[in-house]
Amino acid sequence: MTTFTEGNLQIAFPAGAVVQKFDDRSHGLSHCMKAVDFIVELKDRYLFIEIKDPQHPESRREERDEWAKKFLACSLDEDLKYKYRDSFLYEWACGKVDKPIHYYVLVALDTLDGAELIARTDALKRIIPLDGPPAGRWTKKVVDGCAVFNIATWNEKLRGFPVTRLPGVGRDNAGGVR
Amino acid sequence: MSLTRIQCERFTAFEKIAVDLSPGINVFVGANGTGKTHLMKLAYAACDVSKTKLGFLEKLVRVFLPSGRRLGRLVKRQPGRNRGIAEVHQGDRKIRASFSTLATKPESGKVAGASEWATRPIESVYIPVKEMLASAPGFRSMYAQRELHFEEVYADILDRAYRPPLRGPADKSRRRLLDSLQEAMAGRVTVKEEEFFLSDPQGNLEFTLLAEGMRKLGLLWILIQNGTLLDGSVLFWDEPETNLNPRMFKALIEILLELQRQGVQVFLATHDYVILKEFDLQKKPADKIAYHSLFRDGGREIKWQGAGRYLDIHPNAIAETFADLYDREVKRTIGGGSR
To answer: What ipTM score was computed for the predicted complex, to two decimals?
Structure first.
């Protein structure tokens, strides 16, 4: 099992998974292309993973209004859309779009309920877009599936990739956010 | 053949609108006051007069129930004298009503296409928002004798519900639908002296003691059992979600999709996300579903935007509401506002 850290969240990947921290310096085009946090190659598919942590310690009390704006539906949906599309294009140019791609987003906010998560999932499917044009002209899929989770639903549905919040830098350090 | 188009000009809330219909399921979404119910009532009135031979304008007045039963009040409210037009199409056939603001009685307006329209009667049923079965005993006779201020859809639904069962055993597909409903209701519906009961091995429970949502499923059971909802018929259902626990929606949508597969054209108006999502999740490739989004444009007129897929519904007032809930939750949790 390999573990990676994004902010103060740790995600574990099973043995055999090839994990690439995608948005680091090796990307090389961060001045013009957005990037998801991780690209994971499994036997039968790729996972594009993006982690959003509104409860990160950076969320200081005095900056919380500004901080929160990044996670409102409109800006979050747009950010997730472009991160996926740019990452897809990057990988396509690398000749690495040879398996189905699934896009999983973790919004680590405990208070999001099932209805709110499914609404963001639908919005993402709508704008990537998952289904292509109504006339059915696309012969290939740009994404085979996508979903938005909080930590609890992520760990429930994606048991092979458990996420944990690292001790010592939790919500109490995030300016008292609860 | 199913209904293919509804078209109006200066009719009730609409300045000008044309809605192309699916022969399968038609789901109307939109904020309050965007005319979802009006379009369904108009189409229902057209279906109903094809069987009853009642005048189209008379039926519109009975179904919409304008104040003083004045036909002219169905013309869109604008300064000056105007003329409203309402059409329902079935392929190349159509029935068309036109009337002016000054029309006081149905006879003051004009109807075109009525005789050809009546050559192919369309069986139809309109399930209104308010449940009526529990209030059924005596209502029909009183409605026939008195000037009750109820839109006629409430009396019509009881007429359909009181029809006796079809002769002979139900065919396999109808039996399957009835079984699904019986499972959801944990019983079957019986009628004794105009009173409806839910019957199970423990006994008979009168509808007045039954949860209102369950009565709706009972009504659907009756309409399938008595053959009102058969191939070629049209079902209009205004806000099926009312008083029904969302847990029941899965079974309900399964039944509506199955009715569509059996040739029933279905119209729904809904405000409910779960209803839309159930259609999206349960739809099979051969199912025919059209989503009709009604919304007010910049000039505040009502417009129509059709979509064949759930994700393509735009504007989607329900999804916008969920985005708003999500935003408020984010703000409450991390936005520095008070809890």
So the answer is: 0.72
